[in-house]
Amino acid sequence: MADNLLDMAIRQLGSDGIGALAGALGLPADRGEPAVNTGLSSVLAGMLNKGSSKTGMAGLFNMISDSGVVDFSSITDIFKDPEQMGALQKSGANMLDGIFGSKAGRVGELVSAALGGGSANGGSLLKVAAPVVMSLLSRLVKSKGLDISQLAALLIGQKSHIKDKLPAGLLNELGVPDFSDLGGRLETHGHAQPQEPRPQALHHEPAKKRGGFGKWFWPLLIALAALYALNMCAKKQEVEKKPGEVILDEESVIIEETPNGAVTPPDTSGAPATGEAEGFAGSFREYLTNAARDPNREFPLTIEFAKDSADVTSASVPDVEALAKIMQENPGLTIAIEGHTSGEGDEMANQQLSQERADAVRQMLTDKGIDPNRVTATGMGSAKPIADDATEEGKQKNRRISVRVVTFE
C-alpha cells in the first residue's frame, strides 16, 4: 500500500504547527486540519493531472528531486515568522506554477471557497501545501531510491486518500471529467521487489510443437542474423577509419551526430567477440533468471538516431530485434522503455525528444507483434544521468535509450 501523504503531513506539522498555520491564514483553530487536508489534496490532484501528460511526469520527478526539504522540526516558528513564511510561500508559488501553470490563481480561488467563512487565503494555503508535499516526496524519493515509475505509482496511490477532500470545481478547472479519470493516463510501471524467475521460459522449450511457417522462419532468421554479425565484423575496421557523422562510445546506447559533424571513434578495448545484440540478449536473459535481480536495473539499447530527432537512421536494430524475440518467448514479461538525454540545451525540448525516442522504440516493438499493453514509454529528459554531464564523454553516455523489466510472470 502506498504511503498516505496526508497522514504523513499531519504528523510532521503537528497540532502546534497546524494551529500556527491556521492563525497565519486567519482561520479558526478547529478548521486548521481540514484546511491543510484540502490544500494538500488539491496539490496532489494537480500533480496527478500534470503527470498524465507525456512529459509531465518527468517534469514532476525533476521538480521533486531538485526541491529543498522543509524543516518540520521548526515549522511552528516558520509559520509565526512573517519573513520565513514569506520565503516559504515564494518557493511554493514557483511550485504551483510548475504544477498548475496559468490555472494556479483560479485553483487558489476554489480552495478559498472550500475554506468558507469568506476566506480569501486559499492561494496562501496552497503556497504552503506545495512545499510540504514536495518535501515529503523528496524524502521518499531519496530514502527509498524511487525512480520515476515508482513515484508515479506512489502518486496514484494517493487517490483514495484525497477523494473526499478536494474543493468543488477543481476537477472541472483541471479539465478532468470525473474523479476516476484523474491521473488515468499516468503510467505506473515499476515494482519494488524482484520477482521470481521462470527459468523454463528462458530455455526455449516451446509448450507445443510448431509447424508450417515456424519450421523454416526461425532458422532463416537466425541464419540472416549470423550473416549480419559476420558482415559487421568484416566492416569494423573500415567504419573506425571512416570520417562520419556519429558519436559512438562503448557504453553509449544512442549514437548521434555531433553539432560540428566530428567523430568520436569507438573504444573497442575489452569488447566481447559476440555481436551487440548477443551481448544485450545474453545479459538480459541472465538477469531474468536471477532471483535476486535489481528491479531498477536498466539495460541500454544500441540505436542510431538522427540529430535532434526520433528518426532511426540505422538499417537494422539488433538489440530491438533481440528484445522482441525475448518478449515473444516470455508472454508474462512487460517492460518500460525510457529515453534519456544530457542536460545540454533546453530541458523541455530534451524531455520531449526523449519521449519521442522512447515512443519510437515502443512502436518498433509493437510493429514486431508485441502487445502494446506490455510496453510503456517514458521520456526522462536529463533526470537520470549516469555520467558526469560536464564532459563530452559524460554527455554522450547520458544520451541513451534503456529498457527495464516491469513484471515477469
From TrEMBL:
Coiled coil region boundaries: none
Top-rank taxon: Bacteria
A GO cellular component annotation in the UniProt record: cell outer membrane
Localization annotation: Cell outer membrane
Keyword Membrane part of the UniProt annotation: yes
Pfam families according to UniProt: DUF937, OmpA
Chief location: membrane
Domain OmpA-like span(s) in chain numbering: 292-409
Transit peptide as UniProt keyword: no
UniProt keyword annotations, A-Z: Cell outer membrane, Membrane
Annotated segments matching region Disordered: 182-206, 370-395
PANTHER family: LIPOPROTEIN YIAD-RELATED (PTHR30329:SF21), STATOR ELEMENT OF FLAGELLAR MOTOR COMPLEX (PTHR30329)
Name of the featured protein: Outer membrane protein OmpA
Source organism phylogeny: Bacteria, Pseudomonadati, Pseudomonadota, Gammaproteobacteria, Cellvibrionales
